[in-house]
Design goal:
With 342 residues, the protein is mainly beta. Helices cover 0% and strands 48% of the residues. A 5-stranded antiparallel sheet has the order 3-4-31-30-29, with no helix packed on it. It has a 4-stranded antiparallel sheet with strand order 5-6-7-8, with no helix packed on it. It is globular and about 45 Å long. The relative contact order is 0.13.
Length: 342
């Protein structure tokens, strides 16, 4: 893509199209200008914008700093952590080490990005000021875990998942990493913490979610109503209810721990495949649908969906995160970072 122009616009939700400008794309080592154009759903007041990242990055997960400014993303294909300045569109990549394959990234209570790195089989912290990289390997003898996603609980402990059949916790104060065998084997994928600090993960391989006891570390599986639904990612809302993207079933699920009850809704479209899920500060639920190549917003109050078309034939948005007024999504197949603003 070096030396070419990249159209900085998205097809608007529901088939509408807004005017767009063009932003230059330069070599991967050069900071990039923002794609200034936006498209909008005038009916709901949302706008969409895209930011190109260096070709070959294939951004997997994204973590906007909740205090504003920088947006972090895992450049999985190049083994780096990326930082995006949304104001200028400039990107900068930080090498995580030989063999790195970063999957998830979150911003911790210390303001630093924390990475689950499958290639290094380790938890990685990057200092946001000095960009110093600190690697915390899984305990000696732990097989390759295929590390996926992490979350901090209310006690400052980092919990993480490994798709090969484990989950674990890391104590930043002591630097100690502990791992546990998942009760049903392979599959732990997305993970979330409630406002009360309770931790739940999703098992894609065994189609359930699980609650982790913070003291013993034991995980208790909780089965959704639809068998084999493929629970992929999870996110808590402000009430501590757990929203689940059901990949195989093309549904969004809701588990209420207080009532120990479930509800599920089918996404719109002929063959939906719900990959990522995120709940914003207004308790609106966002999902990525690989089947229709859209971002989907679900309003729990009205139980209505709204779809936002994504660029390209298959954007492959594998994770969603956000901060007040913004929903961020990496389009891994297109080397783009997308944001929905209102």
């Amino acid at each position: 893509m070096a030396g070419k122009h990249f159209a900085g616009c998205l097809a608007m939700a529901l088939g509408l199209l807004a005017g767009c400008a063009v932003a230059p794309v330069t070599a991967p080592s050069t900071p990039r200008a923002a794609a200034n154009a936006t498209s909008a759903s005038e009916s709901s007041g949302y706008t969409l914008q895209e930011y190109p990242v260096p070709p070959g990055s294939h951004p997997h997960d994204v973590a906007p700093d909740p205090n504003g400014g920088v947006v972090w993303y895992t450049a999985q294909a190049s083994g780096e952590l990326g930082r995006l300045d949304p104001t200028t569109g400039e990107t900068r990549h930080i090498a995580l080490g030989q063999g790195a394959e970063p999957h998830g990234v979150i911003v911790g209570p210390d303001g630093a990005p924390w990475v689950t790195d499958s290639g290094l089989n380790a938890i990685v912290r990057v200092d946001p000021a000095s960009e110093e990289v600190t690697v915390y390997p899984l305990p000696e003898g732990t097989p390759k875990a295929d590390l996926n996603t992490a979350v901090f609980d209310g006690q400052g402990l980092l919990w993480f998942t490994g798709q090969q059949g484990l989950y674990g916790k890391f104590d930043p104060a002591s630097g100690q990493v502990e791992v546990f065998d998942a009760p049903r084997g392979r599959g732990p994928y997305g993970i979330t913490a409630t406002p009360q600090g309770e931790v739940y993960y999703a098992s894609l391989g065994h189609s359930h979610i699980a609650h982790i006891d913070p003291v013993s570390g034991a995980a208790t599986p909780i089965d959704p109503p639809t068998p084999g639904q493929g629970a992929r990612r999870v996110w808590s809302d402000s009430q501590g209810r757990i929203w689940v993207s059901e990949w195989n079933a093309g549904q969004v699920g809701l588990y209420d721990p207080a009532a120990q009850s479930w509800r599920e809704w089918k996404l719109p479209g002929a063959k939906p495949s719900a990959y990522a899920v995120y709940v914003d500060e207004q308790d609106q639920v966002w999902l990525s649908d690989f089947g229709s190549n859209t971002l989907v917003r679900f309003d729990p109050t009205t139980e209505q969906f709204e779809s936002f078309a994504l660029p390209g034939p298959a954007a492959n948005v594998r994770q969603i995160a956000g901060r007040a007024g913004e929903v961020w999504a990496p389009a891994s197949a297109l080397d783009l970072i997308l944001v929905v603003r209102r």
